[in-house]
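Field reference: sequence -> structure
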Amino acid sequence: MVSGWPDTRLLELVGSELPIVQAPMANAGGVELCIGAIDGGALGSLPCGMLSPDQVREQVEAVRHATKGPLNLNFFCHSMPEAADDSSWKALLEPYYQEFGVSSCPTAALRQPFDESMSAVVEEIRPEVVSFHFGLPESKLMSRVKASGAVVLSSATTVDEARWLEERGADAVIAQGFEAGGHSGRFLGNDPAEAMGLIALLPQIVDAVRVPVVAAGGIGDGRGIAAAFALGASGVQLGTAFLHCPESLLTLEQRQLLKDRATIFTNVYSGGLARALRGRLVDELGAVRAEVPPYPLGGRQIAPLLAASKKRGDFEFIPNLAGQAGPLGFPLPAEDLSRRLALQALAILRGEFQRH
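Structure field:
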């Protein structure tokens, strides 16, 4: 195990060599990225919210066959809303349906919340770590996850959410700053306009809870990791940094966009606020539209456009979810990236880092 970290509580909790969590990223991460991260000493993660139980089993088997090390399975804990009137949203999208020659009848699968079937998978597979987004599952399911022996992590965007998670059994809290890519984990209903950046949020959560805190959002290199530890973190979670890796599911064109484009919070891809790269859909419709059905229903109407645009190599309609640190990324394999990031951070923490 690489030594020299000022806080080793996360390492002791999850058993990884490095206090780095490779963030679970649906449609961007997966088996190969997870394997590479684990080989590099990080905590590898699989995004399971859009998988069936059998698909989770297959992916875990593939990871276990290829490498040894702690594995994190990630699930969402949102409440499924009632069916909503989507006629206004479809009307806004109609010109795009015509442009791409696709039907407005949605057939795409929706991200499902953690349920009995996935709880049974956790009990069967017994992953070292299970992480949640949008809070925690109901107490009965939470008890089953804990009884399986899994360490439980979940994301908090406010101090109140962090306290809520600790009180309900989370073993560690992921402090998610507004810089982070993907969906904001906000679940207690605070005003989105109050969203905090990591440098302000992290020390407040560290002071408010007793469990280890993992920093997430805007961390793209060793400098960011060292800064997180200086603010009291026990570990970091990086997603966008791993998008540059060849094992990610992004194309070369999409990886270049990480360098070239700014990100923005938008609800047009799913109905929930998520940070993504700017693109034609956001620029033409606006980042936040009241017509979009609530999360995750809003994603169904967009799905035909995403499939058609991807087929023709047009990434303007694809939800390129990414954080603000995209330009800091290195095009390295996940194993090499994990170790490089750790060595950079440790050099800074020891006062040995020299900027090139």
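Note: The two ends are 27 Å apart (CA to CA).
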